[in-house]
C-alpha cells in the first residue's frame, strides 16, 4: 500500500466514508463477523461503532470475505468515495479486495461449520432438534404427593430424555416459582439409581430441599443425608444407605481444596506449598538462585515499584533509608514490611516472608 503524503496526513477536515481499508499492523484484532483473528499484514476492512450515542466511535474490523452487502450497501462504483484508503491501493489490490467482498467465502464456510456443530449438538442435547411436544409422555411418579402441571410433566419428559441420551444431563432454566425443585424430585423418583444423588445448593436452600422432599414424597421414599457443618463426620457407608446427599457450595469447595492440598509440595527456597506443575513455574521465574524473570515480568515489576515509590514520596514515607538505586533493598510499605522494620529496630531479625509466614515465626519465637 502506498504511503500517505504529508498533505494527506496533516489534513484536519474529516473524510466522509462508510468504511476504511488498511493492512493489519498486528495479529491481535479479530473479525467482528466470524470471530477469527485477522492475520498481520493482511487487508482488513474497518467501520465505526459506538456503544452509546454520546460516546466517540471506535473502529471494528472485518475480513473482506466477511463483508455483508445488505448491511453496508457499497457498490463497485462507490468504492473510491465510501472506503477510505481505497485510493492508496494499486489496481491489483483493488481488484482482489472487491473480489473478496463479493465472494462471501468466509460467510459460507462459517455457516456450514455452524450448521454442522448445531446438528451434532442437537442430536443429544438442548437444541432446535429436540421437540419437547414429540417426546413420549412421562407420568408423574406415584410416590409424588402433589399433582404436576402440564409444563412440569413436559419438563420431566425432557429431563428423562436427556438422562437417556449420550449427554446425560442438561440445564433446567425455568423461571423462579415454576417448580424446578418439584421437577427435580420427580426425576429422582422416576429414574431411581443405586448410588445416591448429590445435590449441591446454597447454604440457605439446604433446609428448603430437605423439607420439600419430605413434603412432596411419601414417607420413607427418599432417604436424605445432609453433608454440612457438624454432620460432615458421616462416613461413606452412611452415604451408600442414602438416596439423596445434600451439601453446599462452600463445603464442596473446602473438601476439594483439602484433597488438592494432599498433592501439594513445598518449595525448598521459600517454604510455600504449590501443585507440582505450578512449582516448576514458581522456581523458574520467581524463586530460587536460578530463577530468571522474563522481560515482560521485569517491566511489570518495575512499573509496580515506580508507582509505589511515587506514592511513598507523595505521602512522605521513607523506605527505611535504603538507596533508591538499590532494587534489591526495595520494599513497599506493606503491613508485613513495616512490622519487620519495627522488629529489626528492636534487634529481632525476621526471615519469613508474607503476613502469615511472619506471624508463624513470631509465634514460634514467643513460645520458644
TrEMBL record:
Location of the Helicase ATP-binding domain: 161-267
CDD domains membership: DEXDc_SHPRH-like (cd18008)
Residues that span the membrane, as ranges: none
Keywords: ATP-binding, Hydrolase, Metal-binding, Nucleotide-binding, Nucleus, Zinc, Zinc-finger
PROSITE patterns given in the database record: HELICASE_ATP_BIND_1 (PS51192), ZF_PARP_2 (PS50064)
Annotated compartments: Nucleus
Protein name from the UniProt record: Helicase ATP-binding domain-containing protein
Organism, as annotated: Zooxanthella nutricula
Lineage: Eukaryota, Sar, Alveolata, Dinophyceae, Peridiniales
Amino acid at each position: 500500500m502506498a504511503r500517505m503524503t504529508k498533505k494527506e496526513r496533516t489534513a484536519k477536515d474529516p473524510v466522509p466514508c462508510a468504511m476504511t481499508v488498511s493492512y493489519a499492523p498486528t495479529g491481535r484484532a479479530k473479525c467482528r463477523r466470524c470471530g477469527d483473528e485477522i492475520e498481520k499484514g493482511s487487508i482488513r476492512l474497518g467501520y465505526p461503532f459506538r456503544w452509546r450515542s454520546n460516546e466517540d466511535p471506535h473502529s471494528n474490523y472485518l475480513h473482506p470475505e466477511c463483508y455483508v452487502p445488505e448491511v453496508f450497501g457499497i457498490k463497485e462504483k462507490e468504492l473510491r468515495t465510501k472506503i477510505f484508503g481505497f485510493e492508496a491501493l494499486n489496481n491489483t489490490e483493488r481488484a482482489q479486495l472487491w473480489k473478496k467482498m463479493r465472494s462471501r467465502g468466509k460467510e459460507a464456510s462459517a455457516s456450514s461449520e455452524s450448521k454442522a456443530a448445531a446438528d451434532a449438538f442437537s442430536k443429544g442435547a438442548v437444541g432446535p432438534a429436540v421437540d419437547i411436544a414429540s417426546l413420549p409422555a412421562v407420568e408423574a411418579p406415584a410416590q409424588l404427593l402433589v399433582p404436576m402441571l402440564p409444563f412440569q410433566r413436559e419438563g420431566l419428559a425432557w429431563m428423562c430424555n436427556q438422562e437417556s441420551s449420550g449427554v446425560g444431563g442438561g440445564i433446567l432454566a425455568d423461571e423462579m416459582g415454576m417448580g424446578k425443585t418439584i421437577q427435580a424430585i420427580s426425576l429422582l423418583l422416576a429414574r431411581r439409581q443405586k448410588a445416591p444423588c448429590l445435590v449441591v445448593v446454597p447454604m440457605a436452600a439446604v433446609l428448603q430441599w430437605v423439607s420439600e422432599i419430605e413434603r412432596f414424597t411419601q414417607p420413607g421414599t427418599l432417604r436424605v443425608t445432609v453433608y454440612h457443618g457438624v454432620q460432615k463426620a458421616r462416613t461413606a457407608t452412611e452415604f451408600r444407605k442414602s438416596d439423596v446427599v445434600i451439601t453446599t457450595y462452600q463445603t464442596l469447595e473446602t473438601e476439594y481444596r483439602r484433597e488438592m492440598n494432599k498433592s501439594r509440595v513445598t518449595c525448598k527456597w521459600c517454604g510455600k506449598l504449590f501443585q507440582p506443575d505450578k512449582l516448576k513455574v514458581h522456581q523458574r521465574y520467581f524463586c530460587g538462585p536460578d530463577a530468571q524473570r522474563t522481560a515482560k515480568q521485569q517491566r511489570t515489576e518495575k512499573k509496580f515499584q515506580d508507582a509505589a515509590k511515587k506514592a511513598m514520596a507523595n505521602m512522605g514515607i521513607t523506605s527505611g533509608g535504603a538507596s533508591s538505586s538499590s532494587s534489591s533493598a526495595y520494599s513497599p510499605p506493606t503491613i508485613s514490611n513495616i512490622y519487620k522494620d519495627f522488629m529489626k529496630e528492636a534487634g529481632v531479625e525476621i526471615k519469613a516472608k508474607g503476613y502469615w509466614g511472619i506471624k508463624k515465626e513470631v509465634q514460634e519465637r514467643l513460645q520458644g
